[in-house]
Structures are given as structure tokens and as C-alpha cells.
Amino acid sequence: MIKRVEPQELLRYSHTLAARPVRNGHGIVALQPFATGSLICTVRGRVVTAATVWRYWKHDPRRGANCFRYDADHYLDPEGEIGAWANHSCDPNAGVIKTPTRLLLKAIRPIAAGEEVTHDYSTLLGADDVWTMKCNCGSRRCRKVVRNISRLPARLRSAYRELGIIPQFILCQ
Where are the chain's structural domains? Predict the structure, then answer.
């Protein structure tokens, strides 16, 4: 259940998450602790084509940037949902899991109440993705530029694969 709340919170997702001010604007903040491996939330939204995302880039770049790769040919547009506030980190505490019909956000390490929930955008960028982003995550492990999965260091790609946070359609490219 999502509802509007106080001015500091842009959006609240049940009693577990809220969109709040964070280091780089606004992001998803845990309102309760999450243990490693626990489900944080379902990333909800509308499944759209790549052509739709390209139109977003022309008219609303923020919306285009917020879309999650859903499968080889589609994206999930989280506009109006908690996923629209998901931020990248080169040292994330969560990962996106793809099931046949949904995207799930899962804790890959313990997350404290009040901590921003982040994932590595590279895990959803296939070798065919040309999109890049200057990174400002602030982590000591910051790679400075977010690129597709093929550009991740082999050791990190292997760790993400073991955690199950690289969708199969990305691994097959």
C-alpha cells in the first residue's frame, strides 16, 4: 500500500520503506531493518517497450533513467511507485531479482532502519546497453562511471552472479 505522507517523505511503501531526502537527492529509505536475503519489496510499475523508454528520454530524461530493464525487450516503468526512487551504489546493500512475472528488491547484506536502500544499476544493463552514467555514490568502491554488466570487474560480476542479482537474460547476452 502506497500513500502520501509528511513533506519530508515523498512516498511511503507500507510500514517498511519511504522515499526521503538522501545524500544525492531522494531515495528509498528502510523504515525497519532487513536481514541479508530478505525481500524488501516488489518493484511495481508498467511494463513498456524500449521504444517507449526512448520517448521518455526525449521528453522526461528522469523518467527514462528510472526504468528497470525487465527482459531482453522490455522495461519496467516505476512511475508513481517506490521503485521510482531507487538509487545506484557501487557498494549496494540490495539487488534486483527477476522472477518470471516480477522484479523483487532483495537485501544482499543487513540493512539498518534509516539506511538508504541501493542497488547496482550495472546488474540490469546487458552487454547490448550503451547507457552510462557518471557515478556520485560516495562509496570507497565507487567505479566513477556506471556501465553495462560486461564492464564490471570479473570478481564483482562473479559475486553478483552468486548472489543471484543478475537476471538470466542479462547473463545470456
Answer: 2-118
> Within 13 Å and on the Cβ side, how many CA atoms surround 171?
12
DSSP 101: S
pTM of the model: 0.91
Please check whether residue 90 is in contact with residue 141, taking contact to mean a CB–CB distance below 8 angstroms: yes
Average pLDDT of the chain to the nearest whole number: 92
β-strands 68-69, 74-77: how paired?
antiparallel
Bridge partners of 68, per DSSP, are 76
Under the phi-then-psi rule, with left for phi > 0, alpha for psi from -120 to 50, and beta for the rest, what region is 54?
Answer: alpha
Give the tens place of pLDDT for each residue, 107-147: 999 999 999 999 999 999 999 888 899 999 999 999 999 99
In this structure, whether the domain defined by 2-118 belongs to CATH 2.170.270.10 is answered with yes
